[in-house]
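Feature request, filed as a ticket because there's no other form

It would be nice if the structure record came with a short human-readable summary line next to the tokens. Right now we just get the raw output. Example of a typical job, pasted below so the devs can see what we mean:
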Amino acid sequence: MAIQTPFPYREILKPRYWPTWLLLGLLRILILPPYPVQCATGRLIGRAIYQLAPKRRAIAQTNIERCFPELTARQHLDMLKQHFEELGMMVLDTALSWWAPPATLQRLSNITGLEHLQRALEDNRGVILLTGHMTSLDIGGSLLAKALADSDHPMRVMYKRNRNLLLETVIRRGRERFTDQVFIRQDMRSFVRGLRENHPTWYAPDQDFGKRNTVFADFFGIRTATLPTTGRIAAKTGARVVPFFPIRLPEDKGFEIRILPALESFPSGDDVTDATTTNKVLEDIIRQYPTQYLWVHRRFKTRPEGEPAFYSPTS
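Raw output as currently delivered:
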């Protein structure tokens, strides 16, 4: 496992970080009760976010309405409200992934399809663990990393830096708990090196990074700016691409970490074809669990030339 990043106390004890310390302390308290109580608290937090974040609510509403045009206005609203409850639970689940005892995480975890990952690792070329920004992504990654921590193939993960140094340190330390290495999103050399050492590496490319280095591929019937990196790295390294998705179970029973078979005939050699394939894998799981995707992200912000803006100017 990775050595955990030390706290830079000389900086993070400054007054500017005191509100962050208070927030982190509150999160530590909120994950002390039994898990069903945490979930109930998370849902209340989500309802508050729904009321207090009108811009994010408008983005999520637009995404849901455009991706599920077959639903009624009432169904759209119900999905939107349930999604914000998921967001509230995501806050506490992320805190669990940082601080919960391993035994607690084990109790909440149910991993299915592990044989697909093991089979892919037999090729000795590494595995790209393809996933998406589900609301349980952080805790799901921790649960899978914990399961692999003592194996011959511990997991590696990438992350996006946070401008708040205290949060950056806590997030990084949380992802280092059970992993072999944590590296920033721009560090593609570490990504490729890990695959060549036959490590499974967590990768979630489903965000809008603008037109540069992206292609437009179908996602929910919408031409969507998509990174072709998954196919390109698979072609460069020979790594297998194994989708996995963390799914919140009903009735507050924890999480299923669902590992799917490695993608066949992938990469194809065509960026748009490969991007469409990875988008389709993600879309299939979202359609099964539509409230558990991160709809508050402006996934469709970048439009093809000549298309109107997807979101209103106030979103």
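Something like this underneath would help us a lot:
The first helix runs from residue 9 to 12.
The first strand starts at residue 109 and ends at 112.
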